[in-house]
Known about the structure:
Blueprint: H1 7-18, H2 28-33, E1 47-55, E2 60-70, E3 77-88, E4 105-119, E5 122-126, E6 131-138, E7 150-156, E8 161-166, E9 175-183
Antiparallel strand pairs: 1-2, 1-9, 2-3, 3-4, 4-5, 4-6, 5-7, 7-8, 8-9
Amino acid sequence: xxxxxxxxxxxxxxxxxxxxxxxxxxxxxxxxxxxxxxxxxxxxxxxxxxxxxxxxxxxxxxxxxxxxxxxxxxxxxxxxxxxxxxxxxxxxxxxxxxxxxxxxxxxxxxxxxxxxxxxxxxxxxxxxxxxxxxxxxxxxxxxxxxxxxxxxxxxxxxxxxxxxxxxxxxxxxxxxxxxxxxxxxxxxxxxxxxxxxxxxxxxxxxxxxx
Length: 210
C-alpha cells in the first residue's frame, strides 16, 4: 500500500535541505580566514569550537559552535552541545545582524544532547535530535525543519583546529567544515591563599626594672 505524504511533511523535508550549509561553501582557507585567533587550552579537546561558512549556491551563512566536554568517568567519551546560527544573505552579510532586504531571516537551533568520542586525536561528535531556539529576525519559512549534525575529523594541535566533515543523513554528505577552538573550559584558577594576621605589637621588656 502506498503512503500519502502531507504537504507539511513535504515542505519540512524541502526546507530541512535548504536550511543547511550545503557543498558550495568556499575553501578551507576561506573558512579559516573568518575565524578568530585560537584559544590554547590544557585539554586537547575540551572547549568551544567555532566554524563560519558561506553557501554561495543558497546565499546562506552559518555559524556552528561546539561546546565539548569529556564525559565524567570516561577516558574517550564526549558530551556537549551543537549550536547553529543561520541567516540568508549575500557575501557582504558575513556577520550576523538585523534582517534587511538582503537578509530575510536569521534563526538559531541547538542540539543539547550531543555526544561522541576522542581517540588518538580523532573526533566523532553528533546529535540525536535538535530543537528550535530563536527566530532572531525576519519570518520563519513555512514547514521549517532541520537534520542533526555529525562531525568527524582530526584535531590539529598546533593550529587548535578540528578539520571535520559533516554528515546529517540529508544534504550534508562529507561536507568539509573547519572548526577552531575559541574558548577554554580549563582556564587556570588561582589557589586560595590564607591570610595570616601579624601578631599584635608587644613592646620589649626592660632588663633594668622599673
